[in-house]
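General statements about sequence and structure are easier to judge against a single worked case. Part of our work consisted of pairing the sequence of a single chain with a tokenised description of its backbone. The amino acid sequence and the backbone structure tokens for this protein are reproduced below.

***
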Amino acid sequence: MKIRDNHEKIILSLELGFDSSYEGIKFINLLDWLLTPERG
């Protein structure tokens, strides 16, 4: 089921090695996301 709107969907998780994408939803490690200088 894909969510139909123009906003990026991101799930932040503490699971290591879980960076992936599924039907327009990105799964990103929380610590990686926090330490990345550019978030977008």
